[in-house]
Structures are given as structure tokens and as C-alpha cells.
Design a protein that fits this description.
The protein is α+β, with helices and mostly antiparallel strands. It is 35% helix and 22% strand.
Length: 342
Amino acid sequence: MSKKNKVVVLGGGFSSERNVSFASAANVAINLRELGYEVSTVDPCTGVVDAEREVEYREGSIQNAPTLEELCRLKQDLNMPSLLRSEPFLSAEIIFPLVHGEFGEDGRLQAILESVNFPYVGSDYVGQALAMNKHLAKQLFVQNNVPTAPWICVKRDESDELKVDLPAIVKPVNGGSTLGMSICRQSSEIKAAVEQAFKYDSQVMIEKFVRGREFTVGVLDQEVLAVGEIRSNAEMFDYQAKYQAPQTEEIFPAQLDPSIIEEVKLICRKVCEALQLRHYCRIDFILDDGNNVSILEANAIPGMTKKSLYPQSAEAAGVPFAKACERLCEMALRDYKPLQCN
């Protein structure tokens, strides 16, 4: 781009991933500014975020997660129609949504941006909704011959006396950052794990636990980036292991047989096609002891913090993070379809 565009980066929101979302938004905003873009960071609930607050979020100095009561108040404060009729949206040329969790990754935010004809980064409302709903995503994986572990989906009135193969992973159907996720090795643990997951969603998924090495890989446009391995002393790569545990080791690029990497690339392309994802995503998978790949999930708005896996995948593939952000802005304009009025 010879002319640097005006960009609004959206972060925060009212989900339990609010602080992670702010850290992602701040990291992207600061990197784009360093390339000469005019960038504003905006929280859909509270409005423009000042530069000092951006730095605090980016550097991780704001760690206290909002309480449920605070999130409920933030949800009541949400007023996107009013924000869209004011600055910096009125002069924005690109919207870069980085709101994680509810309203950011379930397709509703993207549907609003479509309705007002804004160019924006990332998958549209269909792709977002499919990736967010792990049950629907896994159904599409099966239909498109994408290997994934067996699972069942339960609603609150169906959660009594569940009979499942153990060990099993219990997690909310909609959600991110592995919040509300548990591993169960005994049938007596299932009920409590399901109740914990119901705190985050009205549907819960119980998935067969696949033992093996855990990997992740970013996708940028149609390019599969570097595969990374996640090694943690924790049994699961959960929220604490992702953002707080110093013993977690993230290795980019992963040491894998080239044939497995090629298989992963092929499967990643199938995942993106099945879920109708565009621009970018991050795909997580397990490699079991028999070298069989099993897809865990696809993240349509992956974490973009300084510690996140997607920036590491891009850097290891030879794509500086700032350049990846710029390419995403270019894709938003490339795929923008202005309204045609007859």
C-alpha cells in the first residue's frame, strides 16, 4: 500500500476473554502504527481506548479479570449502532475485529459490520459462527474427512447419568482460551466438570481424550504457516498454561517429519474450506503415538498478543508479525464488496 489506511481495531467486549482480547488488539494496533497506519483501538462497550491503556494491556500489566457482574454491566453498555455513527468509525477505512468470545467470534459483530458495509479483517459471520460452535465444527470435520476425536454434545436437561468413554475432555461448545475445560478420568468426575462448563455456555461437549503431542499452526490467506509444538507440564494446555505458566514451552518450528507437515497442511486447507474461513485462523491438533493427526479446533480470531501462538507461527514462517497485520488489512480491502445501488 502506498497510502496507509485508517484502521479501527476492536478489542475488549463483554466475554470472559476481555483482557486477552485487549492485549491482542493493542499488539496489532501498535504494530500497524509502526508501519505508518492511523489506528484507533475501540472497545464495543466503552469506546476508544487511550494509548497509555493500550501499552498496559499489551505488556500484560493489567491482569485482573473482570468479574461476572462487571461483564454483565459491560454487556448492557454495548451500543454498536451509536459507535458506528461516530468517530473514529466515520473516517475508518478498515475494521480489524479482535474481540474474543461472545459477540466477537460468534458472527454477530461481523454481521453488523456487513450490514453497514464496512471492510473488515477475518472470516464473515458464517465462518465465525461455525468455528465458534465446536459441535457444528466437528460435524463439518466428519463430513469433510477431517480427522477429529469422537464426542457428544449435551444440553443442561440432558446432563444426568452420562455414559462416556474415559478419559474425556469436557468443555463449553462455544468459548475460547480453554475456559471451563476439564479432563475427567473417572465417571464420578463428569458431573462436576459438566457443571463447570455450563457456567460458560448452555451447551457442553464431552470429547474423547486423545493422548499425544499437541501442535498448532497459523494460516494466512491460503498459506499454512509454521507448525509449532506446545509442551507443558500441565496435563492440558488450559488458560493458566497459555497465559500464566512459565513452564509451558512453545517450539516454532516444530520438529516433525516432513510428510506429517504436508499432511497437516492438507488437513488445514480442508478445515478452512469446511468452516468457510477466510484471511487467517489458527488450527490446533494432536499427533497421537501412532502419528495420526486429530484436529482439536479452529480459531477464527486467534490470540494476537505478544505471547500468542499465531504471531509465533507467522514469525517462524518468515512473516514478521507487523507484515502479517498489514497483509490482513490488504485482504480486507481486496475482498470488500461495496453495495451496488441501481
